[in-house]
Structure formats: structure tokens, C-alpha cells
Design brief:
- The protein is of the alpha+beta class.
- Helices cover about 30% and strands about 30% of the residues.
- It has helices at about 5-30, 40-45, 130-145; strands at about 35-40, 55-60, 65-70, 75-80, 85-90, 105-110, 115-125.
- β3 (about 65-70) and β4 (about 75-80) form a beta hairpin.
- The longest helix is centred in the first third of the chain and has 26 residues, at about 5-30.
- The relative contact order is 0.13.
Length: about 150
């Protein structure tokens, strides 16, 4: 049985469409438990966030809120966006840039009114420059000064 060229193109296009839909469904199935939405403390306190969903909580670590619990490995701190605050707990070793007053992204789940973080990502402040770029900027400043 031989198909006309017009029908061959149609079969090929339908096969490609089925393959694309199948790939999209597989990708969605693979990410169903790993997708984490970024939320702020205001989102959490407004009640729009479901308890137990995987989330990324972003904000600043409130000054004076960072405390180490008696077990020695659990940290308790408050993440704020300037409007609302969320108590956060993290068990483990925090990154070296993690400190009060700095930006943070905590990955975890909301349990009651407390955010239980599994992972913490500390953020640089807006003045941060990579060392390579910082050195070249300083060298250009020195060169301009010497030229004058």
C-alpha cells in the first residue's frame, strides 16, 4: 500500500504532534513533586499558600532573629519582605554567606505557621561584584588616575 505524498506528510505531522505531547506529559509527570513556587512572607501570611507544598521562600533574614536551638544543628530565624514575617527553621549547615540582614531563599514546606527549610541559598547584596570583575574595575580606576 502506497500513500500519496500529501497523506505521508499528514501522517508525519500527526506523528510529530503525538511525540511532542508525549514528551510534554512525561516532563510534567517527572516534575510533579519537584516544582517549587517562589513565594514571599506576604504570600504565606495572606493564606494563598497550601500547607505541605514544596516552596521557595524569599526575603531578608530579620536582624536579631537568628538563633541556634539547643540541639546545635537547628537554626531558627525570621524571613521578612518588609511587610510580613515568617518564622523559619533549618536543620543543617548554613552557607557561609548566610547571616542576619542578608537576602535568603529557603527551599522547603510550610508546616502550620512555620516554614521548614530543607535547603538555604544565601544571596549576595547588590554591591557584590565577582572578583574578576571587581579587580578589573579597580585596575581601570587606577589607570584613569595615573593618566590624569
Amino acid at each position: 500500500m502506497s500513500l500519496k505524498p500529501k497523506h505521508q506528510r499528514l501522517v508525519l505531522a500527526l506523528s510529530a504532534l503525538v511525540a511532542l505531547v508525549g514528551a510534554a506529559l512525561l516532563a510534567m509527570w517527572g516534575l510533579r513533586d519537584r516544582a517549587a513556587y517562589f513565594v514571599t512572607p506576604t504570600d504565606i501570611t495572606s493564606g494563598t499558600v497550601e500547607e505541605g507544598d514544596a516552596l521557595r521562600l524569599g526575603g531578608m533574614v530579620q536582624q536579631g532573629s537568628l538563633k541556634q536551638l539547643p540541639d546545635g544543628v537547628t537554626l531558627r530565624f525570621i524571613v521578612t519582605d518588609g511587610k510580613q514575617q515568617v518564622e523559619t527553621r533549618f536543620r543543617g549547615i548554613p552557607p557561609s554567606l548566610f547571616k542576619e540582614g542578608s537576602g535568603v531563599v529557603a527551599e522547603g514546606r510550610l508546616r502550620g505557621r512555620t516554614f521548614e527549610a530543607d535547603n538555604i541559598l544565601a544571596k549576595h547584596d547588590e554591591r557584590y561584584m565577582p572578583p574578576q570583575l571587581g579587580n578589573s574595575a579597580a585596575e581601570h580606576a587606577v589607570a584613569r588616575t595615573v593618566e590624569r
